[in-house]
Design brief:
Order of helices and strands: EEEHHHHH
Largest sheet: 3 strands, antiparallel
Shape: flat
Mean pLDDT: 77
Low-confidence stretches: none
Structural class: mainly alpha
Number of helices: 5
């Protein structure tokens, strides 16, 4: 369900660009909990495909250099739950990465610093 007060990522209630799920939670009355995170969010625009490809190659080099380390199952679930606060899609709205893959790699981090 999309929030009626959000247009192209811009939430009318907080007058900022935020992920759609933040706007929904703010409009449902959970304003205090989520408004503290909203000012930290930068206006976002999904990177171009070439930029995504470069980020992917860089992430794979770092992961290969670490010895192909992945996070523990519990940590993986925590990371994915944090991702669900921003989006319900299978890709990150900020970097364009597949969430299931990015959350599993020990060398990767959330672009918002949530994990």
């Amino acid at each position: 369900m999309d929030c009626p007060r959000i247009t192209n990522g811009y939430c009318e209630k907080v007058n900022k660009r935020v992920p759609p799920l933040y706007c929904e939670k703010i409009c449902k009355g959970e304003y205090e909990k989520y408004i503290s995170d909203a000012p930290k969010l930068k206006p976002y625009k999904r990177p171009k495909r070439i930029t995504q490809a470069k980020l992917f190659v860089r992430a794979m080099r770092k992961w290969t250099g670490s010895g192909f380390k992945v996070v523990h199952r519990d940590e993986y679930r925590k990371r994915l739950n944090k991702c669900k606060e921003c989006t319900e899609k299978k890709t990150c709205p900020f970097c364009g990465c597949n969430l299931w893959a990015k959350a599993a790699l020990k060398t990767e981090q959330c672009p918002l610093g949530r994990w």
